[in-house]
Amino acid sequence: MNRSRLSPLDSRLGLGLLSILLVCWSCAFDPEIDELRLRFPRLPDSWRETGADFRFELSYRDDSGKELRLDAAPGETRAASIGRRAQVFVARPYVRGFIETGILKPAGAVYPEEVSGRELSLTWEGGPGAETAALLAKAGYPIGSFDWRRFRAEALARAGDPWRLDPVSCARSVLEGGFSSSCLSPEPLVPTAVPLPGGGLFPAGTILASGSPFAPAARCDGSASVGTFCRPGVQYLFNARWMIAFSVEGDGTVSAVVVDSAE
Questions:
Q1: Domain stops at, among 183, 210, 229
Q2: In this structure, are strands 33-39 and 119-121 parallel, antiparallel, or unpaired?
Q3: Total-model pTM
C-alpha cells in the first residue's frame, strides 16, 4: 500500500492551522468573553428632518478591561468582544463637523441586563438609565445589582421625555440608599420663546430640533423668536446649519443665547 507522507512544510502548515482553530475555539467558548452585536438606534423623526449628518461615538471595555472607542452610523449594527462583567454602553450622538459629543442626549444600555440573545440594543429610552449607571459606576457602585429595565419603564411612564429627569439626582438617590420610583419626579416644562437673530436667517418653516430625542421639533414662523417647551437649565435647538444654546429660568425667561453656525 502506498502511503502519502507529509513534508515538513505541510506539517508546519497543519500545526499553524490547528493553532488558529484552537485560538478561535477558545475565544468562542471563553466564559469571560462575550461576543455581541451592538445595534445603534435610528434617528428620531425630529432629528432626521434637520438633514444633519449624525454619527455615534461609543466607548466600552474589552475582556482585558481596556477602554475602546467605536464610531457608528444611526441604525448600524457592529460587533464587539467585551469582558463578561456589568458595564455601561453610552452612545453619544454628534453631527459630523459641527456639533460635538456631549451636546445632544445619548442612547444607551446596561450590560448584561438588557441583552437579548447575542444582541445589545442601544436605545433612546435606555439613554437616561445608561447615563445614571455611568455616574454610579464611576462612584464604585455595583451597577449589576440594580433593576435597569424597571428604571427605564418607570422613567418613560412618569416623564414621557425621560430626559426631564436628572441623572445626577437619580444617581445620588441610589448612592444614598433611598431610591424608589417616587424619586423619578420629572422637572416641569415651561413655555419658552427663544429669540432668533434677524437678517432672514430663520425664515418661516425652518425646523429646529431639541437636544432631547423625545422632544418635538420647533418650527419657525418668520418672527423674531421661536416657541417651544423646555425644562429649566441649559437647552439646545439645532438643525444642519444652526445651533442655538440658551438658558431657561423657572418662569420660562430665556437668557445667555449663543448662536453657532456650521459654515
A1: 183
A2: parallel
A3: 0.85
